[in-house]
Amino acid sequence: MAEFPAFLSAQDVGSFAYLTVKDRLPQILTKAIDTLHRHKSEFFEKHGKEGVEAEKKAISLLSKLRNELQTDKPITRLADKWVDTDIWNHYLGHERSLLNGSDEEPRWFFSPWLFVECYMYRRIHEAIVQSPPIQDFDVFKESKDESFFESQESIDTLCMHIQQLRPARDFSEDELKDTLFKLLQISLWGNKCDLSLSGGESSSEKTDVINSLEGLMPFILINDTESLWELLSTYKKAAKSSVVRVDIVLDNSGFELVTDLVLADFLLSSELATEIHFHGKTIPWFVSDVTMHDFNWIIEHVRGSNQKFTSTCGAEWENHVKMGRWIYHDHIFWTLPHPYCAMPQVAPDLYTKLQKACLILFKGDLNYRKLMSDRKWEFTFPFHEALCGFHPAPLCSIRTLKCELQVGLQPGQAEQLMAFDPHWLTTGKYGVFQFDGPL
Ligand SMILES: O=P(O)(O)OC[C@@]1(O)O[C@H](CO)[C@@H](O)[C@@H]1O
Ligand SMILES: [Mn+2]
């Protein structure tokens, strides 16, 4: 069997993985510590002295974590008793076994980047769950909410645009396709707004994204949206089955989530789909990723807007949830360090659930890394092969590039991009729609 390429790792000094572990992750931890500090009086008001003690404990655990990271200490077993603790510790054993009995231990600047980065977020969770009574506190909530409020204008423009489109049932075939492509692109560029890339600092959408789409076209490096259209319109025409289910594996809250909900709403109103299943995270993750709480919070806030078009959107979304046309799921697998090709073994129940979809959309960079096992594939390596057998249903990755990993490019394309823009892989300026169709 041909050898697999190595995992991205902070071992590669100067790489994006290295800079993330060296600079960005400590910065995120510092911000989390600061957030806890600033909520001290709130904890006191809610829980009295115990709340303040809990805040101190969580801060000391996070400071210890930051020190371990910055001094490249061995990665230790999780000590909490959460639902996934055993799976994590088992995975840590697996990482250790890969070191072939050498004296090495898994370490921050040595082990696979995907593993250590996920581990850091899981340790943040550990610090919080080990500090009752503040065990439900989300250290990233504040920045997620901020980014939503800062994107308010773009959200209003987007909601007005989609409201003025209706009714989608009267659309011609071309109009349907054209609108689908637009909303897919909006959802793609929505992925620029993640907060882990900016170290938790504000990263909201302030431009009029609809009017920017045309100009952004050249930045889509791979565009398989025609295949998505073909798949969904075939279902629609053939009335092939009474249920056309589209699953969206969500990424970030704030503006990106709104763009995903706008897309999901259109899929229903255009009858390209009959139900949408959303997948989010069980615990706060990579700063801005969507939890169930964020999902409900965003819908509630869009509904509560004083802008008519926006609140109408929110009311319709609320209704989709109430009527069971929109279904939110979470699963611990999404916050484990495993690549998705391991899903059938590690989370067979989730894999079986995804197999019921006609199409799965994977949003964002982290999902891409997990789809691709975070390995250093050649830029021209086929997407399908890099999935290493992961194929619960036809799927499409919708992602702006924020790590040194990209497959499926044309020969020479990467070299050209590199000559033109040496940071093309990591700034979120470029995007892809990469589809792996029915087998
Ligand atoms: O998944 P998302 O929100 O698109 O991106 C998450 C992200 O910012 O986190 C990682 C580095 O910390 C990068 O790979 C990636 O750019
Ligand atoms: Mn994210």
Q: Which ranges are low-confidence, i.e. pLDDT below 50, for 5 or more consecutive residues? A: none
What structural category do the secondary elements indicate? alpha/beta
Order of strands in the sheet with most strands = 1-7-6-5-2-3-4
What's the name of the CATH homologous superfamily of the largest domain?
Uncharacterised protein PF01937, DUF89, domain 3
SS field, number of helical segments: 18
Shape from CA axes? Answer: globular
Radius of gyration: 22 Å
Question: What is the fold-level CATH name, i.e. the topology of the largest domain?
Answer: Rossmann fold
H/E topology pattern:
HHHHHHHHHEHEHEHHEHHEHHEHE
State the major sheet: 7 strands, mixed
CATH architecture of the largest domain: 3-Layer(aba) Sandwich
Account of the protein in words:
There is one protein chain. With 439 residues, the chain is of the alpha/beta class. It folds into 2 domains: 16-129, Transcription Elongation Factor S-II, Chain A, CATH 1.20.930.60; 141-436, Uncharacterised protein PF01937, DUF89, domain 3 (Rossmann fold, 3-Layer(aba) Sandwich), CATH 3.40.50. Helix content is 50%, strand content 8%. The chain has 18 helices and 7 strands. Helix 2 (40-47) runs antiparallel to helix 3, helix 8 packs antiparallel against helix 11 and helix 12 crosses helix 13 (308-322). 43% of the residues are buried. The model has no long low-confidence stretch (mean pLDDT 95). Bound molecules: 1-O-phosphono-beta-D-fructofuranose and manganese (II) ion (MN). The site of manganese (II) ion has 9 residues, from loops.
